Amino acid sequence: MGKALEGVRILDFTHVQSGPTCTQLLAWFGADVIKVERAGEGDATRGQLRDIAGVDSLYFTMLNHNKRSMTLDAKRPAGKEVLETLIKQCDVLVENFAPGALDRMGFSWERIQELNPRMIVASVKGFGPGPYEHCKVYENVAQCTGGAAATTGFDDGPPLVSGAQIGDSGSGLHLALGIVTALYQRNTTGRGQKVLTSMQDAVLNLCRVKLRDQQRLERNGVMEEYPQFAGGQFGESVPRAGNAFGGGQPGWILKCKGWENDPNAYIYFIAQAQVWPSVCKLIGREEWITDPEYATPKARLPRLMSIFATVEEWSTTLTKFEAMDILNKYDIPCGPILSMKEIAEEPSLRATGTIVEVDHPERGPYLSVGNPIKLSDSPTEVRRSPLLGEHTDEVLADLGYSREQIALLREERVI
Ligand code: CAO
Fold it and tell me: Which residues are known catalytic residues?
């Protein structure tokens, strides 16, 4: 079966996590992704957080599947010539260098347009145009400047960053959508365009509901579903809501059997209005079904934390999986807190290709997260990440370079 992006050629000038997340997705959809790296070291993540000496790290291998790697010194004249050829023959250039690096290399938007007016130039930067546009940015900076850290954690504690890499991988996802959208528009305009995702914007987009809450707070002074509503105080900006559910259905994380020794023996429980009678019966509080202090969602709001404490008396008698089975029988929305170990071993995730085992010539088999976006007519086969420069000769030959020319570039240490 063919692939959705077959025939699309990507000049992948990305490194670390945000850009590579984007180009990996495009590769999984069938694009030919040529990762251009500096000879010697390559993408810095090849050597970061190594678990096996001298072997590409999991950080690198898990973000660079299905790509080809070529080495190139893009700052030397002969290297720039190769880059020009690549720009002429590719559809998209993706980069996440520090601001201005591509211009300093001599490849401004205008220059790229001259070389190939159909080229789409897609960039991740820490910030969009404005006071911080020149700053270098990593994941947690974006979480802090995009509203995530201020709204994560408990209100008696400091701001918290999340384990989910919403700044890096989140930006990569946004960028990938921008690229396929620009490719689609090119079908009618015949022109390329610039695609920019700022990490701050991407995080803020994922924190959209918190900007909603900021405006609700300013209008009404309180937000009834926040834990602060029951006796606490609201300040000027959206507070950290602990484990409260962001939507209209109240929820919280509850202890389950074994929580004293197992840091993940918990379940997320949602007191959805429709199933309130079932919740009351399950936890032995049938009187709450009709008691005016508990019967309606509005009446329950000021006493949510004590309601969750009562449900927890029930949940601590069961393992998280037993609790999940029982709650699901009554259609009560819930979810066990799964550890990374449990997720890695979960057979259903293996069956769908969301967790994949990949073989690598230097490290042997390892686990990775496969393509989370499933297309029925463009299935994903996850192939191992390339070794540094593994495809340099192959790519140059594809571009029309002769054996002699390639040998000369190697002799001059351009590749
Ligand atoms: N040939 C020649 N030079 C190359 C090259 C190649 N193949 N590949 C990279 N370089 C050069 C760049 O041109 C740049 O040179 P100048 O500084 O002279 O312009 C230099 O290598 C370093 O690139 P960089 O500044 O992007 O790298 P850094 O390690 O200093 O910064 C990072 C890393 C991530 C902070 C920065 O790239 C950045 O802010 N990127 C945008 C935001 C982003 O994506 N952040 C998320 C990263 S994932 O956590």
Answer: 168
